[in-house]
Amino acid sequence: MNKEPILKIEDLCVDFKTRTGSVRVLHHINLSVKAGESIGIVGESGCGKSMTALATMQLIPTPPGLISEGSVLLKGDDLLKLNEIQMRDVRGNEISMIFQEPMTSLNPVFKIGMQISENIIRHQGKTKKEAQELSVAMMRAVKIPGAARLIKRYPHELSGGMRQRVMIAMALSCQPSVLIADEPTTALDVTVQAQIFDLLRDVQQDMGTAIILITHDMGVIAENTQRVVVMYAGHKFEEGPVDEIIHHPKHPYTRGLIRCTPHLKKNMEHEREELSEIPGIVPDLSRLDGLCPFRPRCSEKRRQCDEQMPQEIQTGDGHFVCCWAAGEDQ
Amino acid sequence: MSESPLLEVENLCTYFRLSKSHPFGRSRTVFAVDDVSFRVSRGTTFGIVGESGCGKSTTAMSILRLIKPTSGSVRFDGNDVLKLDPKPLRRLRSRMQLIFQDPYSSLNPRATAGNIVAAPLKTHNIGSRQQHHERVSELFSRVGLRPEQQTAFPHQFSGGQRQRISIARALATDPELIVCDEPVSALDVAIQAQVLNLLIRLQRELNLTYLFISHDMGVIQHMCDEVVVLYLGKIVEQADRNSLFSHPLHPYTWSLLSAVPSIYSDADSLKQRVKLKGDPPSPIDPPPGCRFAQRCPFADTSKHCYSKMPLLRIIKGQHKVACHRVSEEGVAPQDIHTI
Ligand SMILES: Nc1ncnc2c1ncn2[C@@H]1O[C@H](COP(=O)(O)OP(=O)(O)OP(=O)(O)O)[C@@H](O)[C@H]1O
Ligand SMILES: Nc1ncnc2c1ncn2[C@@H]1O[C@H](COP(=O)(O)OP(=O)(O)OP(=O)(O)O)[C@@H](O)[C@H]1O
Ligand code: SF4
Ligand SMILES: [Mg+2]
Ligand SMILES: [Mg+2]
Predict the structure, then answer these.
(1) Are residues B29 and B139 in the same domain?
(2) Same structural domain, B11 and B70
(3) B152, B174, B196 — which closes off a domain?
(4) Are B230 and B163 in a shared domain?
(5) Regions of chain B where pLDDT drops below 70
């Protein structure tokens, strides 16, 4: 498993211009994913999960947004050096993205068959007929029943689960090497969610796609990824193998995130205990002070925390954490 | 358990007639809530769980008479809610309040937080201006908001704080029952924990009764003493928290629980995961027989699954299930068959 990563994000910083000045929404993010691997990104709303994905795809609205530092290496080539026309060849072809709400990326006025074919024609130079056949095959691959009939339907005529499948079919139609799934099941019922994750797992096995899964659900992370990145207020706080992160989290925020969720328990022996809380709320990104942004909510804060931002340290095999408290435990 | 229940719902049905698609078309009916009965004891939390569109909100709104039910009865502390005249109904309403899912749209954007919380006192003509003022201050500190925040407007609060405002508003008239319709679904997990802990603390302090709606099995398990599982407008299973989660009887409950992604699952439990096919069907003119039959791994023609509607029956203690294939002794199909 010592393959080179297929996608490598290095030192990525994103700033946004606002009325009151420039706000940094991503602070020196590093992450990478190998072929056939699934990594997860978790964190509370606004922590920069989608922004990381959008920056990778160069879909950040510029202005007001700007990638101010860093690189995004796909198979060694820096995507940030490509122009928009070159980038269009990458999107939907080398890297695809599926979003939480399929209707944001499906065009309501075109039949779904056409929307899938269009992607194939654009990137693979197939004829209309070939593309159509491939679309049906793709829809069968994502287990859409009656695919041949369904290509003539419009997006709004499908259920939420079906629309998400169409999105996946579209995203995979050119066999991308990297698939970014941004909360792909948040709008779906759990029974349908389970089907979608099964599907993604199968596809990954068949095609060796690298998957970056964005979610706020630790259960989803536990079951569907091998490695996790925990983000907070635009910072990467912790990264590690999924079992390590869930059972031996090193960062106080990761610990809080896991303990504050009422995870479904199969055995009901013990009486219910109070959920542990992370007090307070996430900080305003325009008011960060260059120190650890979790400081005001942290129960393990110490002297150094008020003096200097902690550096990322390695605490185990592939396990990295950015916290003064974690450093002292060692 | 001799005390009478606070809320008794009997054979509640709420159907929506849909307009015909063309003049000679068949008229179609949504069976949103179909013959639902349950009782809620004082001081407990009663959960309603199920997937989107199964009728959770319609049940809640029907109980509060915010939607007109088609038939059935709702008794609150002995009063027949559905038959009350407007005046006594208003008085009763001050004793049952509602908290919504969306802390953004459920608060008037042009009113200050203090006025939002005081509004029910004004509507129900409770107390003087001075008393309103004192009550609002007390409520603010109860739900963990600072007194000076009374003058701020909803957009100046975070999602969790807005939900605290809705909770304070619901508490204003000193109600006995609070219907919580997905109260934490729109909140981040960290904020979710704060609100759930607050609800539990308030229940203990004020002896509140909750009708608690959620689609999140983990939240339901954490919060509820007793639970009903709805599927397409019907109760498929009802039990106390312990029985339901340790031995779900209905194949739907069982597969729903098995589908929940968990940090506790391992390779084995993933392999054993039940996979339901398809989407939940539409509650418009459902076919005869068990409403779950189309997706049920155990549906069996010889057991009438496709032809006869299974009745909700008592299996053990207060554990009830509506499934032809659960035996009288409480053996569920998933206990003996592998799929
Ligand atoms: N146009 C903008 N100007 C300033 N800040 C912005 C702008 N767009 C986004 N942001 C900020 O960037 C941060 C990162 O947002 P992002 O969408 O990545 O969050 P997220 O982790 O995906 O959250 P969620 O779970 O809600 O999807 C947020 O705090 C947001 O407020
Ligand atoms: N006014 C209405 N007219 C027609 N159908 C309706 C109406 N209100 C609700 N329905 C239908 O009744 C069914 C039950 O809806 P309800 O809102 O009670 O579901 P729910 O369980 O609360 O779902 P969710 O989890 O999505 O909130 C749905 O199929 C819905 O489309
Ligand atoms: S660095 Fe300090 S304040 Fe930040 S999380 Fe670690 S202990 Fe808490
Ligand atoms: Mg996002
Ligand atoms: Mg609802």
Answers:
(1) no
(2) yes
(3) B174
(4) no
(5) 1-2, 21
Give the minimum alpha-carbon distance from B120 to chain A in angstroms, rounded to a whole number: 28
Separation of CA A46 and ligand 1 centre (Å):
5
Residues from chain A that touch B242, judged by Cβ atoms under 8 A, are: 268
Helices (H), B105-158: 113-123, 129-142
Does the pLDDT of residue A330 top 50, yes or no?
no
Phi, psi of A235 (to 5 degrees): -110, 150
Contact B193 A197 (CB under 8 A): no
* B204 shares its domain with B294: yes
Closest A-chain CA to B240: A268
A293 lines ligand 3 (CB under 6 A): no
CA A140, CA A244: separation in Å to the nearest integer?
Answer: 37
- Boundary residue ending a domain (B174, B201, B220): B174
Q: Which of B160, B196, B259 sits opposite A194 (nearest CB)?
A: B259
CA–CA separation, A166 vs A155, rounded Å?
A: 9
Q: What residues contact residue B198 under an 8 Å CB cut-off, 6+ apart? A: B143, B144, B164, B167
Q: Do residues B32 and B139 share a domain?
A: no
How many domains does chain B fold into? 2
Tens-place pLDDT, residues B134-160? 999 999 988 988 888 999 999 888 888
* ipTM of the complex as predicted: 0.87
Task: Judge if B145 and B204 occupy the same domain.
Answer: no
Contact B93, B71 (CB under 8 A): no
Q: Are strands A21-33 and B45-49 parallel, antiparallel or unpaired?
A: unpaired
Find the range with the poorest average confidence among A95-104, A213-222, A224-233, A305-314: A95-104
- Mark yes or no for CB contact B241/A162 under 8 Å: no
CATH number at residue B276: 3.40.50.300
Q: A276 CB near a chain B CB, below 8 Å?
A: yes
Could A195 and B275 be called an inter-chain contact, meaning their C-beta atoms sit closer than 8 Å?
Answer: yes
pLDDT at position A2 is 57
Same domain, B55 and B25: yes
Q: How many of the other CB atoms lie within 10 Å of CB of B212?
A: 27
Does residue B32 line the site of ligand 2, with CB under 6 A? Answer: yes
Pair B114, B60 in one domain: no
Partners of residue B178 on adjacent β-strands: B97, B210
Per-residue pLDDT for A329 more than 60? no
Q: Which of A10-19, A104-113, B211-220 has the lowest mean pLDDT?
A: A104-113
Question: Are B290 and B309 within 8 A, CB to CB?
Answer: yes
Domain hosting residue B144, numbered range: 103-174
Q: What does the pLDDT read at residue B9?
A: 98
Residues of A in contact with B51 (CB under 8 A): 189-191
A1 touches chain B (CB under 8 A): no
Best A164, A190, A237, A276 member to test B by mutation, with max B CBs in 10 Å, is A190
